[in-house]
Amino acid sequence: MTSVAVVGAKPASPATITLTIDGVRAQTQRGQSVLEACREAGIYLPTLCYDPDLEPYGGCRLCMVEVEGMRGLPTACTLPAQEGMVVRTESPQLDAVRRDTLELILADHAGDCLICRKNGHCQLQEVSSYLGVDCRPALLREPTRPVDRSNPFFDFDPNKCILCGICVRACAELQGAHAIDFAWRGLETKVTPSGGGLWIDSNCEYCGECLIRCPTGALAPKNSQKASRYVKSVCPYCGVGCSIRLGIRGDRIVSVAGDKESPVNNGRLCVKGRFGIIEAVHSPNRLTKPLIKRDGNFVEANWDEALDLIAQKFHEIRAQHGPEALGVIASARIANEANYLAQKLARAVLGTNKVDCCARICHAPSVHGLLRSFGSGAMTNSLAEIEEAHTILLIGSNTTEAHPTVGSGIRRAVQRGTKLIAADPREIELAKIADIHLPLRPGTDAALANALAHHIIAQGLQNQKFMDERTEGFEEFWAVVQKYTPEYAEGITGVSAEKIKRAAELYARGQPGMIVYCLGVTEHRTGVVSVQTIANLALITGFVGQPSSGVNPLRGQNNVQGACDMGALPEFLPGYQRWDNPEHVKKFEDAWGVKLPKTPAHYPLIFCSRMWDDILKGNLHGLYIIGEDVALTEGNISKVRKALQSLDFLVVQELFMTPTAELAHVVLPAAGFAEIDGTFTDSERRVQRVRKAVPSPGECKPDWQIVCEISNRLGYPMNYQNADEVFEELRKLMPNYGGITYRRLEEHPGLQWPCPDEAHPGTRFLHKEKFTRGLGKLVGIEQEPPEEVPDEEYPFLLTTGRVLQHYNCASMTEQVAGVVQLVPENLVEISPKDAEALGLKGGDLVRVVSRRGAVKARVKIRQIAEGVVFMPFHHKEEPTNLITNDALDPICGTAEVKACAVRIEKRIKTL
Amino acid sequence: MSDTRARSQLIPLLQKAQQKWGYLASEALREIARELRIPESKVYGVATFYAQFKLTRQGKRSVKICRGTACHVRGGARILAETKKRLGLQEGETSPDYQHTLETVACIGACALAPCLTINEEVHGRLNTIKVAALFGGEEDA
Fold first, then answer.
1. Dist CA A636 CA A622 (whole Å)
2. How distant is the Cα of B17 from the closest Cα of chain A, in angstroms?
3. pTM for this structure?
4. Choosing among A156, A178, A181, which should be mutated to test the B contact, i.e. which has the most B CBs within 10 A?
5. Which of A120, A165, A245, A506 would suit a FRET pair with A475, their CA atoms being 20 to 30 Å apart?
6. For the segment A63-74, what is each residue's pLDDT rounded down to a tens digit?
């Protein structure tokens, strides 16, 4: 990733160049700087402002060298290596100038090294030691400038800052946040957020890229302990799947760092990954013993008691009501091995196909929509390819907050010239830097996509050859789409026809063009068909099946892709193998030695979102929920809670006592991601290993072991020695995972499915020469409005989403004091105009009311489409999903949590 | 808008804004950043780098005392002291009623008139403490 400005490099010359450094011949690649050539040759040059991930800066002046035939002392970091150069890194003159330069730096660097948090890994110490500094120069001024301790994760001490600019450049070049910069001049120059205020009031995203790069103690973490060993793992939060290195000391995680070798994140992390793991794993609130509810209160039990009770109750329910009175909700948060066994437990042991996972609430429409259009329901490309696209069409994804390391990648790409079209009702961070922002009304994605397609075809910008050779269904598609002129769509979406036209042209002309979308598209009752209209755009332009060109749903949770792959969905067997294919069914019946339960052909699919009605109708009596807080994250949770309360028996397997766990009859304490061996599959289909790094607290057990113990008690033996054995079983049954083994995962930074055999390197992008389903399917789909549209009583359209710092039900992030400090309570974002009309100011407390309930929230004024308000859904004290709608997508059962009608009531101030 | 073009427009726009409101309020910096699509932190960096930009509300009369060599030789220090006394302000301060802001400058370039100062654009030369007192009101209390 190193990119060095090639100043004056001659084109069309050999890639390798030879130069002489300190009398020794050295070779390097053209484009490398002299500094890099030195480092490659194993020669140390003192530097303070150089970072291999950043553009060269030439600010600290310590890497000066002498070059034969060149005047002065150029800085090696900014000097491109050239053929035949003769470089000297040491001479009396260089030494004298370097010492003078360092003395000037030291004269304005205050602090006592011994008690500095950077002691021992401070670059200034290293350079001073190298140059043999033997006395400390007098300080230019007293170190009286105030230390900024305002943010919860790190401190900034300007008295120790040497103005190398690494933090400023990391924030700008890597994260693209531009939260800090130099201000003032001369001796007064300092690094500061805009306005010169406190860090906590800035737009800092707390990615920590500045912190880990600061060469001195100016930026220092509040808590730092050195680790005694390191374990490679995967971040347990979102679906990006950032690879991490956990620093362990004793039996505790003491540090978290991004893995620089990882193709997923190249070492980068977000606030949750960097600062949100340790406190969540080692929280005193972790469940540590099985709990059984007796007379309305939980009492601690031992494992045998709890598991025996579960087996007995499941037996009873099955005997009394039949196997379909039982259901299992597996989890997008747990490992593949546990998901595989959970669905096996449901289908092979309990004998029910009522098994699902939290993909239902998010990307089930992508699985179905892309399966219908392309034949495979996953991201078509790899995350790294996003940064290489010519044009990115971003729809319904607040990437900066929901998939932060991908979001910063998009910002980096835009800074390098990638064109960005952002369709989102809010002026999200990426909309601010987009070439075109399309502020559409929530739930009008299909109309927008249709209009983009219409204009592409009307302008003749389609890829006719691709359409002729690789797609079908144009007539049916055009029959609908021809009426979606940009002007017609303007009336539906609220986006001006002119903007739609410009966006269509920009996308269609931008080879390679990449579509990235997320839950803004899917969490509607029209989710599946909206995904298909988006896929249409790739099919008419031919922007699919190439590097950096495809249709990419960013998956929400760390293992939501894996949970779907493992068949924790009622509509598919593991590996998306089909109920209607007798060979597939027979394969599993043979492998598991049982008859599979009745197929979807025999009775309707009971998605997780339909289980609540199923329970209330008396069809479902016992439920086993693993790692999902349905009582907080489903739409219209009043109904969910009512349903859970009316169950005969509810088992919840969790890390924390969530609102769902509160309603359980038995709560089982599960081991967290850092306490188990297993695999997660991230958004780009990459299967990665997590490893046991620390012991679990109390009596927690890995999820897969708990499932085995329940199965054993129900008379179906599951005897696996370790997670590897489970993986061996599942990979043999799932062709896409066939070539992935634990051994190979030690050697590779994850493997991307399809990976059919052990010689296969994995697949970067799908549909290269042929779609999985053969031809790409164009479909003509009319825009249907959300079930609820604003009216006089409920005049606003509420849409929901995530904030950067919290994660979904927040059971983990609410353990992190810094996150709670940053986002302590629920909020509602409203446009300046609507706020004025309602007489609201930022910080006012309001009630947001829908037909289903009401929640309190703080007002935040934000650029958002008029008539639309936005709320996150993380806070269990004021849960937004009390008011969201549970109208379901008829195809895949995803609830329309992204659109419902609300009104806003000003609260009278108490106190 | 291209990056370079936006950046070339930044200083003229800051100057215009300052001309209009007399100083650059944080809202003005934010709006300029938004309009030019330059990060706010960068706009703040530029606005603080140049002495010509003021980030706080200035007095109606901007008083600049010359500290050039000629003025120094002819008693500029006493002019500064007298002005400070008369206005009750230190260098860089603005009076609470926003009538005056007091600053010193390296040289006004009116050395023939030393010692001198400017009030807004107007130069006052060949000063003595009595003239200073007259400029800023109040009885002579020597």
1. 21
2. 16
3. 0.91
4. A181
5. A506
6. 999 999 999 999
Chain B residue numbers with beta carbons less than 8 Å from the beta carbon of A203 are 40
The answer to whether the Cβ–Cβ distance between A178 and B41 falls below 8 Å is: yes
Say how far apart CA A281 and CA A816 lie, in whole Å.
10
The C-alpha atoms of residue A650 and residue B135 are separated, in whole angstroms, by 87
Task: Please tell me the predicted confidence (pLDDT) of residue A597.
Answer: 85
Number of H helices, E strands in chain B: 6, 4
**Per-residue pLDDT for A770 more than 60?**
yes
Intervals of chain B under pLDDT 70: 1-3, 138-142
Beta-bridge mates of residue A472: A777
Contact A194 B40 (CB under 8 A): yes
Residue B110, min C-alpha distance to chain A (Å)? 27
Q: Measured between beta carbons, which residues in chain B are less than 8 angstroms from residue A202?
A: 41
Q: Of A634, A644, A627, A641, give the one whose Cα is nearest residue A609.
A: A634
Across the interface, whether the CB atoms of B49 and A185 are under 8 A apart is answered: yes
pLDDT of residue A13: 59
Q: Is residue A559 a contact partner of residue A342, using CB atoms and an 8 Å limit?
A: no
Comparing C-alpha atoms, which of A79, A97, A95, A98 is closest to residue A87? A79
Please judge whether B40 and A183 are an interchain contact, meaning their C-beta atoms are less than 8 angstroms apart: no
CB contact under 8 A, B37 and A432: yes
pLDDT in tens, A604-619: 788 999 999 999 999 9
CB neighbour list of residue A32: distance below 8 Å, 6 or more residues apart: A4, A40, A80, A81
Annotate A470-520 with three-state secondary structure.
Answer: HEECHHHHHHHHCCCCHHHHHHHHCCCHHHHHHHHHHHHHCCCEEEEECHH
Which CATH number fits the domain B61-135, given the four candidates 3.60.140.10, 3.40.50.150, 3.30.390.50, 3.40.30.10? 3.40.30.10
**Contacts across the A-B interface (CB distance below 8 Å):** 42
Return residues 13-42 of B near A (CB < 8 Å): 26, 29, 33-34, 37, 39-42
Residue A178: list chain B partners with CB under 8 A.
39-42
User: What is the reported pLDDT for A903?
Assistant: 95
- ipTM of the complex model: 0.87
Q: Is the peptide bond before A754 cis (omega within 30 degrees of 0)?
A: yes
From A729, A672, A667, select the one nearest A703 (Cα to Cα): A672
Interchain CB contact of B4 with A (< 8 Å): no
B40-B41-B46-B48 Cα dihedral, nearest 10 degrees: 110
Question: How many Cβ atoms from other residues are within 10 Å of residue A186's Cβ?
Answer: 6
Question: φ, ψ for residue A777 (rounded to 5)?
Answer: -105, 115
Q: What is the mean pLDDT of residues A429-435?
A: 95
In the numeric block, which tokens belong to residue A855?
A: 């929640």
Q: Read off the tokens for A870.
A: 């936005």
DSSP assigned state of A815 = G
CA distance A140 to chain B (A): 21
A133: its two tokens = 């500094």
In sequence order, what E strands does A536-600 have?
Answer: 550-553
Please say whether the beta carbons of A305 and A671 come within 8 A: no
Domain ranges of chain B: 3-49, 61-135
Residue-level length of chain B? 142
CA-CA distance, A682 to A562, in Å (whole number)?
7
To the nearest 5 percent, what fractions of chain B are helix, strand and coil?
45, 15, 40
Alpha carbon distance B114, B124 (integer Å)? 9
Length of chain A measured in residues: 911
State the DSSP H helix or E strand holding residue A19, giving kind and residue range, or none if neither. Answer: strand A16-21
Return d(Cα A56, Cα A37) in angstroms, integer. 14
Q: What is the pLDDT of residue A908?
A: 55
| pLDDT over 70 at A12, yes or no | no
Q: What is the DSSP letter of B57?
A: P
